[in-house]
Design goal:
single chain, mainly beta, 3-stranded antiparallel sheet, elongated
């Protein structure tokens, strides 16, 4: 008896519309379920709209390995819970503000140009986005001049979707 080898992947949806309860079912050509995917990355965050590659591997009865890849379009219909986001850089602080609707939680992570986490802010009041960063790092040092990235992650209270907004800003020496 010969084992079924993956020669083709069949998706339950293409494009895959990510929803809170949606699952992409991945099958081989014979209809066997190879796996499912809920549209989240390994950290539990909803992925961004884009093209993703699904990789499936099998081994036949002789020990030969077969790898098959297939691209799938992913569309995230995430609600726009955060709007009017602005970042104001002052010589002594950075102010991040925005409007928030229907959030269960949000957090702001600030990274330096090296991708190192500089500050992590997790507020209890989620009625609006408001954070005045004193330009101090997690260890209490003054942040260096340069490019920074603010990542605002948030969870929609109704759908449960976790999304993010990314904004860049620059800390410059006073002129």
């Amino acid at each position: 008896m010969q084992a079924n080898v993956v020669h083709d992947l069949v998706f339950s949806q293409d494009p895959f519309h990510v929803t809170p309860s949606g699952q992409l079912v991945i099958r081989n050509a014979e209809g066997d379920v190879l796996g499912t995917w809920n549209g989240k990355d390994t950290s539990g965050l909803t992925v961004s709209t884009g093209v993703y590659t699904v990789v499936a591997g099998t081994v036949d009865i002789n020990g030969a390995e077969f790898i098959y890849t297939e691209n799938i379009d992913v569309i995230v219909d995430a609600p726009n819970n955060i709007s009017a986001l602005s970042i104001y850089v002052d010589p002594s602080f950075v102010q991040i503000d925005g409007s928030a609707v229907n959030l269960e939680w949000y957090r702001i992570k600030i990274y330096n140009i090296k991708g190192e986490l500089v500050k992590n802010y997790f507020p209890t009041d989620v009625s609006s986005i408001s954070y005045a960063w004193d330009m101090k790092t997690q260890s209490g040092d003054r942040a260096s001049f340069g490019l920074y990235v603010a990542v605002i992650e948030y969870k929609d209270a109704t759908t449960g979707l976790i999304s993010r907004k990314v904004e860049k800003f620059v800390i410059k020496p006073s002129q």
